[in-house]
Every structure is written in C-alpha cells, then in structure tokens.
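User: We ran a pulldown and think these components assemble together. Before we commit to crystallization trials, I'd like a predicted model of the whole complex to look at. Sequences follow.
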Amino acid sequence: MKTLVNVVTNVALLSGLVFSGIAYADQQRVDERLEVPADVFVKIENMRGDVRISGTDENYAEVKGELDKYATGLTFTLDGSTLSIIVDMEERNNFSGDEATDLSITLPRSAKLSVEGVSTDFWVNDFNSDVRVNSVSGDLEAQNVTGNIRLNSVSGDVQGKNLAGTVQMKSVSGDILDRSNKATTVSYGSTSGDINAASTASEVTAETVSGDIELALDEVKELELRSVSGDAEAYFVLLNNGRVTGESVSGDVALAIRGNVNAKVSAQVSGGGSIVNRLSDARAEESRWGIGASLETTIGSGSGVIEVTTMSGDIRLTKN
Amino acid sequence: MSNSTASNKLDRLINEAANGNAAPAPERELWTGIEHSLARRQQRSSKWLNWVWASAACMVLAVGGVTFMSLQAPVVNPEQPAASALLTYMNKQHEQQRQFVLTQYQAVGWNGESEFVAAEIEQIRASIDEVSAQLMAEPNNQALWQLLQWLHSKELELLESQFVVSDKLQQL
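Assistant: Here's a predicted model for the assembly, 492 residues in total across the polymer chains.
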C-alpha cells in the first residue's frame, strides 16, 4: 500500500513538473537593451500580465522578462526620440491561461511615459517626468514620481506613494489610495470605488458617484468635493482666501478644519439632511416647511469661502 | 336609636324572607334617578368623543394646510418660468448628447448594454431627476445647477467607460 502511495505521489509530482515546464516553454524570454536620449518619449503597450517600469540615472532602455504565451514578439525600436516597447499579440479574441507577460523595464529617469494595458498590472517607480498610465482591468501603482502624472484604470485599483507635481488618479470601479502625496495640484475620481488620500497639495478635487471620499490634507487653497451617494470627508487647514466647495445628492459632507478659520460659510440642505456647525456659534435655520436647512455665517475675517450643498445628505462642519 | 331601628328593620326583612313573603321593595321609586345617571354618563362620554373628533379635524386641517402651502410655494416663485425653461433646455441637450454617444458606439458594434457600472448610471439618472425637481423649488441655488451639470458630464463619462470595458475586454 505504502509503495502504491509513493508511486502515485511521484507520478503526480513528475507530471506537474513536466506540465509547468511546458507552460514556461510557451513563453518567450526577452533581454534587450538600447542607448536612448535622456528625454526619450516611451510608448509601452501590453495586453495582459505584469509590467514593472523603473527609472535610472543612465541613458539606456532595457527590457527583461517573459512575453505572453500568445505574443508574436516584442517591438523594441527607437524612432527619433520615440521609443516603442510593444508586446505584439496574435490576432484573436480569446486569450486564456495564466502565462501572461511578466516584464521589467528600465528607462532614463527623465523619460516621458505613455503606458497602455488591458488586463495588465503596472508598477512605475522613480521618474521625474510626465507619466500617463491607462489600464482597463489592471491595477496601477506609482511611487517616487514627480511630474505631470495621470493614472487611470477602469476596474483596477490605483495607488500612489510619494507622488509630486500635478497628479490625476482615476478609477471607475477600483479604489484609489494615495499616500505621502506632495503634488501642488491633485485630482481624484472614482465611480463606485473609494478614495483615500493623504496629500499636501493646495489644490485638490475629489469626486465619486457611490464611493466614499476621505482626504487628509494640509494647507488648502482650493478644494472641491463632489458625490452622488458616497460620503465625503476632508481634514485640512484653510488658507486665507482659500475656497472649499462640497456638493452631493444624498451623500454626507464632513469638513474638519485645523487652525484658524476665516471664511464666509454657506451650507444648504434641500431635503431631509441636517447641518451641524461647530466652527462657530451660528446655527442652521430650518426651512419653514420643515424640510431642508441653511446656514449663512461669517467666521473670522471672512476672507475664505466654504460652500456646501446637499440634496438629502448631512453636512458637518467641525474644528479638528 | 337609629341602630336599633335599623336592626329591627333587618330582623323584619329576614323573617319575611324566611316565611316566603314577596321580595323586598324599595320604599321609593328609584328608576328615574338611575335613568338620569345613565343619561349623564352617556352625555359625558359623547362630550369626550366630540373633543377627540374636533382634535382630529384640527390635525387634518393643519396637515392639509401645510401640504397645500408647500405645494403652492413653487408656483408663486417668480424665478420659476425662467428656471423651468433653462432646466428643460439643459436636460434636453444632455439627452441629445447621450443619444449621440450611444449612436456612435452602436455604429461601431456596441449595443449600449453592459452590466458594468449600470447601477451607477441608473443612480445618476435618478439623481438628475431629483436635482431637476429641486431646482424648480430653488432656482437660485447655483450649487444645484453645478451639481446638475456635473451629473450630466458624469453620465457621459460612465457611458464611455462602459464602452471601453466592453470593447477591450472582449479580446480577452
């Protein structure tokens, strides 16, 4: 009996090794390198798999890894100041199996990137340039990038860490998570995904349909929050002459402000929501029909503006 | 004195009962008093009921009045005709854009049907109706106008993303 078990186990292990060997044998390995200008424009396209893109101080482009098992080859060409790195795929409508692209790409730190994928997860690290990444169902992660950054995924999550410059992060159904953001201007957009960000940007926009927004900000000059049914919450310092607007249909809007507040405050609830004001002693007036409420008050010098409107959500203005 | 009289009366009644005489009768007619008493109670209870009915009627009148006045409020708003025209124009323009986008996508082979973010699109369309209705009551609320514009653009954006997903993921 023991011998039989050993035989079955060995056959299973052996067939597993053979099968995995065949699977890896299907994927073409690549290891290519080119001299490129420091400010090269790089176009990267891949249908599915994982692609890691890193910046370096040297002026070369390098691609290493394995191509999708349905790939017909790799386009890796420099035409003037444009470098194309494209995983060419078979003309077909059904790509099944796990043997997708797995590439590591190294480029000059100041290279401008235009990256496209369908079901590809992208990691982009260490660039001082313009970076645009679009993926349909893949996750995107960018770290230590300064420049004009746009990260868009339709159903994947979008994550950022140590991003600076001008940052736009969007996902339709995925979540957005941004940490240690040092941008001057930042824009977050989701449809059903949540937005959770910590940024020192002075100009911030965040909008969602049904996801929740949570922002931990620093000194704000301009903040715009929009939501349909998701709740929006922001912690910040309001600069003198700063402007904050919040609009929602049924989501709650909560603003927690640190430090001194000098602003004209206008808050309006049209439906069944309520207004809580802890910034001053002023109290919201309820509509004479019993539905809806409004608050108009000036705090401090009134140099800034806070305007919040909801149809049926609650508005909460507090000192943090 | 009175105790002995009462005791005598009681003894006489016991004896009469023991001898099988007729049932004891009251010394005077009591039914008239009983009738009065019952009528008074009935009167008292109907007075209480009248109060209940009066209160209910007041409540109905009050609720009806408030409802009537709230329904009347938008009608007397002088800004309403202009707001209504602008609202109709904006919603109509949006509907045209929406139909145009869908027609364009249908021209390249997408039927406009997708489960992806369908719930959110539905939510946005309901919100457009909700905000439009509120704008009739609050035509001077700038924020609501902005919210409506944003909802319009968001719906078109979501339609686009539905198409992108359907188109690209078809290949996988």
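Helices of chain A lie at 2-26. That may be worth checking against your pulldown data before setting up trials.

User: Thanks, that helps.
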